[in-house]
């Protein structure tokens, strides 16, 4: 592992964030539709099956919300990483430019 360099393209990291964001929104939309259909179907269930369906539906809704939240956390982390990589690159470029400026005036 020694000597290996980490190479990161901030634009690629940002695009990954966009892809995860789309996946999160798709999950929320698709699961929201499924939850709505389940809610509409609940009225046709009676007795213990109705109670069981209501409990399962609540768990599914909670699970969907948790998955969505986790995906959004990943989106935010990826966007933050992309921003930090871009900032580091910009600062490094400025430092190199500043260090090389005196060399240029010496004809090097």
Automatic annotation (TrEMBL):
<comment type="similarity">
    <text>Belongs to the WXG100 family.</text>
</comment>
<dbReference type="InterPro" id="IPR010310">
    <property type="entry name" value="T7SS_ESAT-6-like"/>
</dbReference>
<protein>
    <recommendedName>
        <fullName>ESAT-6-like protein</fullName>
    </recommendedName>
</protein>
<dbReference type="Pfam" id="PF06013">
    <property type="entry name" value="WXG100"/>
</dbReference>
<feature type="region of interest" description="Disordered">
    <location>
        <begin position="87"/>
        <end position="108"/>
    </location>
</feature>
<dbReference type="InterPro" id="IPR036689">
    <property type="entry name" value="ESAT-6-like_sf"/>
</dbReference>
């Amino acid at each position: 592992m020694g000597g290996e360099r980490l190479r990161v393209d901030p634009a690629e990291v940002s695009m990954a964030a966009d892809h995860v964001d789309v996946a999160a929104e798709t999950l929320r939309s698709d699961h929201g539709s499924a939850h709505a259909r389940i809610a509409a179907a609940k009225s046709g269930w009676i007795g213990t099956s109705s109670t069981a369906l209501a409990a399962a539906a609540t768990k599914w809704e909670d699970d969907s919300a948790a998955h969505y939240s986790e995906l959004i956390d990943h989106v935010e982390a990826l966007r933050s990483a992309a921003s930090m990589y871009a900032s580091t690159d910009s600062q490094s470029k400025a430092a190199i430019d500043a260090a090389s400026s005196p060399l240029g005036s010496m004809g090097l």
